[in-house]
Amino acid sequence: MRYAVLGTGEVGRTLGGRLVELGHEVTLGSRTKDNPVAVEWAREAGDRAAAGSFSEAAAAGEVVVNAVGGQVALAALEAAGARNLEGKVLIDVSNPLVFEDGQLHLSPVESDSVGEQIQRAFPLARVVKTLNTVNCRVMVDPGRVPGEHVLFVCGADASAKEQVTAMLGEFGWPAERVLDLGGIRESRAVEMWLPLWLDLSRTFGHADFNLELRRAR
Amino acid sequence: MRYAVLGTGEVGRTLGGRLVELGHEVTLGSRTKDNPVAVEWAREAGDRAAAGSFSEAAAAGEVVVNAVGGQVALAALEAAGARNLEGKVLIDVSNPLVFEDGQLHLSPVESDSVGEQIQRAFPLARVVKTLNTVNCRVMVDPGRVPGEHVLFVCGADASAKEQVTAMLGEFGWPAERVLDLGGIRESRAVEMWLPLWLDLSRTFGHADFNLELRRAR
After folding, report:
1. Strand B209-215 vs strand A209-215: parallel, antiparallel, or unpaired?
2. What is the pTM assigned to this prediction?
3. Of A40, A99, A164, A177, which residue is the least packed, with the fewest Cβ within 10 Å?
């Protein structure tokens, strides 16, 4: 499969690198065509890896992964171009984190979400929200954390969610540990997990954790 | 111990009933002195159970539990009276749920929380936020759900958190499954868990579940 991964931060490079290892072709997209971080990443990641602008990456990918921060997601996807997203699975892994008055906040929050913003702005993209609930190393290597811990997917398009669940399976997440929460509106719920994740990360002193759901039936 | 449980809904009656079973004296407080639900509860719960106004209950209790909804918590506690809360452990189990435009919302959210509102309004009370992350039947009977699932406590007063952790221990929660997240500000994080809890409850079709935290170390 040909993937576009938008964003050259740790999340984008980690996801892109794992997809290349799995045999996929990946273009890491950034605001500028010759972003040195992206170029260096592509050189190290090998033959199936390339670097390009958001637009070049999105044009090359059959699936597009939004791995830029929630605050700049719409701008990055606008630069990628609506035509390059049309009909494609668009995986949003971002969180709406913003640093304000010396503290981390979420924006949008509760009455909206980045997942919904993206789906509204690009109605012909098949947006699936997932992976934002764990650290990027856990995203691509769930075995870092013991137990039957879970991920969530949400989005309007059932076949897009199936395709994303298959990709998560390649990362090591069994399908029974990927919970379908429903439509893209449920992005609100998974984005609002972040404050508790941040508290737990501080309490544990690391990011190698996740939640397992225990149920009576 | 003498407990005041403010609120005659399912949460208040369930918590009050369990505390009576455990040998404590409980006054179930409501807006009106002769609330028939509270009177009937007290009659059924037995000799250690009483019903009264918010103020009578808070005056009688050594520990006060806020089990009214987040939207009416401040009004209930004002009716209980600041003098009746002074120096006491005040356990807030509420969530800021509000039904608006045909949908459930949280208010306050993200930049404030019910836990913080209560602590600000009653600075001499020793507020501990806990239990709001699970259904009330799970609150008092964690064995309904298998596994090492957890609760959270937060609040400014370490000895108040210890005392609450001991009460949770009586309910069946081992101390190692009660995570101290820090100060009362972390009420935001645990209150923001609610949307995901609601999604999961709908997905599972019941409320007998909870999260277990899995970690690498």
Report:
1. antiparallel
2. 0.97
3. A99
Distance of alpha carbon A4 from alpha carbon A24, whole angstroms: 10
CA distance linking residue A85 with residue B31, whole number of Å: 56
The C-alpha atoms of residue A34 and residue A52 are separated, in whole angstroms, by 7
Beta strands B151-154; B126-130: pairing state? antiparallel
Cβ-based neighbour number of residue B32 at 10 Å: 11
CA nearest to B57, candidates B6, B123, B127:
B6
Q: Mean pLDDT of successive 10-residue segments in chain A (217 residues)?
A: 98 98 98 95 97 98 98 98 98 95 92 98 98 98 98 98 98 98 98 98 98 97
Query: Looking at beta carbons, which residues of chain A come within 8 Å of B191?
Result: none
The ranges assigned to domains in chain B are: 2-204
Scanning the structure block, which residue is given the tokens 């007063």?
B157
Interface of B with A (CB under 8 A): 105-106, 109-111, 144-149, 179-182, 186, 188-190, 192-193, 195-196, 198-200, 202-204, 206, 208-217
Class in CATH terms, B2-204: alpha beta
Residue A142, preceding bond cis, omega within 30 degrees? no
